[in-house]
């Protein structure tokens, strides 16, 4: 943890307090311009936290909401003249919050421990590994292949995430009660199996089936682990539970090795990012090949003429990986119109705050949705399930797999 304190000091200490980051931080206006909910405010709060810890070993500052609400979109880094990443400061502070040794009282989010315990025990943040495999019923996979489709549960969990957001809706008392129950008896997570948005589930399962159709049409052979497929542990790392993530990531890699998996075909930005950028840091000898499914579609005969689309570039694809394959493919089949904030200056959709801080998330999503609608494109296209759920405010919003299926003639 001392290393984390030094990391906070190095990153926050370079800040010149110019405030350029406040102009692009999505949570600053979404919170009503509350100082601690903006990039510069978080930097200043981190400095105050370090001062208190330096004086007395612990801080009494309320830092939980300020840093847990950070979207870690890293928009701040793109405009900072000093090269400071306020989002990275939030990442480090989340580690300090999760550890708790430098705070006078626990300030972790009420559902954080629930997610950690369920993930560690059931390989899924809501204990829904069986439910996350139901989309694949009736699909034939190549069980002998060392290449597997790895969904990471991201598309599947969105239907439950949306319902959970509606249920909790910022009710901290309800979150605390639910967290306490599920943490003591994780088997009760089965109650979550019935808490999903049926329309979102239908769409998400359809998009995953689209991915399978596209890959098969491109001649790719692959398996799928079904109910044995593990969640990648993204939320553990996002919430600052670094040691828990380290142990979990090693379990995930060992599972893949035991099943003879050598290559992962991933389908969403968060799983792609964590497997490419984080797993090699935390798992000694990590040697799995990771490829995004869009990179395997080069042989497809895609027809142009699908009208106009506004493409929302996910933060984890563009900023963290500089990955432009979605834009490249869309440009082949439609007229692509980019919104005001695009490229490395793309704007966050509001995730992953949707369940923890729904008010802030909704405000961010509404601003981004308006930007996309202002392009006057016929449809809004995403390449991320989290972005889809946050931006899904009318029928114009679709996943990129839907557009590519249409470009193939509507069938594989």
Automatic annotation (TrEMBL):
InterPro entries on file: 4Fe4S_Fe-S-bd, 4Fe4S_Fe_S_CS, Cys_rich_dom, HdrC_iron-sulfur_subunit, Helical_ferredxn
Gene Ontology MF, one: iron-sulfur cluster binding
Domain 4Fe-4S ferredoxin-type: 6-36, 59-92
PROSITE patterns linked to this entry: 4FE4S_FER_1, 4FE4S_FER_2
GO-annotated cellular components: plasma membrane
Coiled coil location: none
Top-rank taxon, per record: Archaea
Similarity remark: Belongs to the HdrC family.
Name listed for the protein in its UniProt record: 4Fe-4S ferredoxin-type domain-containing protein
Species per Swiss-Prot/TrEMBL record: Thermocladium modestius
């Amino acid at each position: 943890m001392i290393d984390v304190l030094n990391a906070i000091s190095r990153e926050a200490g370079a800040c010149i307090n110019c405030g350029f980051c406040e102009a692009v931080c999505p949570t600053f206006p979404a919170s009503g311009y509350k100082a601690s909910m903006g990039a510069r405010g978080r930097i200043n709060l981190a400095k105050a936290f370090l001062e208190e810890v330096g004086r007395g070993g612990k801080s009494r500052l309320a830092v939980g909401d300020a840093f847990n609400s950070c979207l870690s979109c890293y928009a701040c880094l793109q405009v900072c003249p000093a090269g400071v990443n306020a989002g990275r400061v939030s990442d480090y502070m989340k580690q300090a919050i999760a550890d708790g040794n430098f705070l006078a009282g626990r300030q972790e989010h009420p559902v954080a421990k629930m997610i950690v315990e369920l993930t560690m025990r059931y390989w899924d943040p809501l204990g829904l590994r069986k439910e996350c495999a139901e989309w694949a019923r009736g699909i034939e996979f190549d069980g002998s292949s060392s290449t597997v489709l790895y969904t990471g549960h991201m598309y599947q969990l969105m239907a439950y995430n949306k319902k959970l957001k509606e249920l909790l809706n910022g009710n901290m008392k309800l979150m605390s009660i639910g967290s306490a129950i599920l943490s003591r008896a994780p088997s009760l997570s089965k109650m979550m199996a019935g808490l999903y948005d049926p329309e979102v589930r239908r769409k998400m399962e359809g998009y995953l089936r689209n991915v399978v159709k596209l890959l098969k049409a491109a001649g790719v052979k692959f398996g799928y682990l079904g109910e044995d497929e593990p969640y990648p542990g993204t939320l553990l790392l996002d919430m600052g539970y670094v040691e828990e993530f380290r142990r979990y990531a090693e379990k995930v890699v060992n599972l893949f090795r035991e099943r003879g998996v050598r290559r992962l075909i991933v389908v969403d930005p968060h799983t792609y990012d964590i497997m490419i950028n984080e797993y090699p840091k935390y798992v000694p000898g990590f040697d799995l090949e990771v490829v995004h499914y869009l990179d395997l579609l080069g042989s497809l005969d895609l027809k142009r003429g699908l009208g106009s689309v506004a493409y929302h570039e996910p933060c984890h694809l563009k900023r963290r990986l500089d990955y432009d394959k979605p834009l490249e493919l869309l440009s082949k089949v439609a007229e692509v119109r980019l919104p005001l904030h695009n490229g490395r200056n793309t704007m966050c959709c509001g995730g992953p705050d949707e369940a923890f801080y729904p008010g802030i998330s909704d405000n961010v999503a509404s601003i981004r949705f308006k930007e996309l609608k202002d392009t006057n494109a016929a449809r809004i296209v995403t390449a991320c399930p989290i972005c889809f759920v946050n931006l899904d405010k009318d029928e114009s919003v679709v996943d990129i797999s839907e557009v590519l299926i249409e470009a193939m003639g509507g069938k594989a």
